[in-house]
Amino acid sequence: MTSYPLLDVRVSTPVLELRGATDELLGELADVVRAGKTDAEPPPYDDPISLYEPDPDQRVAKWLRAIWRGRGKVEPDAWRLYFVVVVDGRPVGMQDLIGVNFSTLGTVTSFSWLSADERGRGLGREMRAAILHLAFEGLGAKEAGSDAFVDNHGSNAISQALGYEPNGSDWATRLGEPALLNRWRLTRDNWQQQRRTDIQLHNAEACQTYLPLS
């Protein structure tokens, strides 16, 4: 147990585990960030985790500071849970759950990245399924959203496969340049229709105590 119970929250599937992003786990994952294995093509949208920083040591430092800042912001209109993705005992990426006016609307969105060494194995879909289970089963979410650039075929395919419905389009930046996004929406009813029975939540009750869910 840690002194901050939200870091003890875990989600496990037959393939992987999402573990609360303790400093120890982030330290293990730092080698992946330092090596530049977070790069993707096409690149994801700009996010305050600063994975585009060219200098390896600065990239790790900015990434860690962004996570530490994000941990400290826990407000009714915005909070973020950071999880390290662990496969066969190895940290291989991150999967975040973000509350968006959750206490009023019950809505969440997500953000993730996966080491370049681990892509193409179906882990992206498994990560998303795990975090959705926490959102709907553990936190009682009413709806989950997801955005992906129109040319990010992998992310769009995951959303479609998991029951999200198209929800319009929007603009965002990547590497500072504007690009068109697909927006996706997953209702609780649609999630229920294909909810899995092999995903387990651990210590999720901490979310009820330490997050402004209502």
From TrEMBL:
Keywords: Transferase. One of its GO terms (cellular component) is cytoplasm. One of its GO terms (molecular function) is protein N-terminal-serine acetyltransferase activity. Pfam families: Acetyltransf_3. Transmembrane segments: none annotated. Residues 31-187 form the N-acetyltransferase domain. It comes from the Bacteria. This is GNAT family N-acetyltransferase. It comes from Kribbella jiaozuonensis.
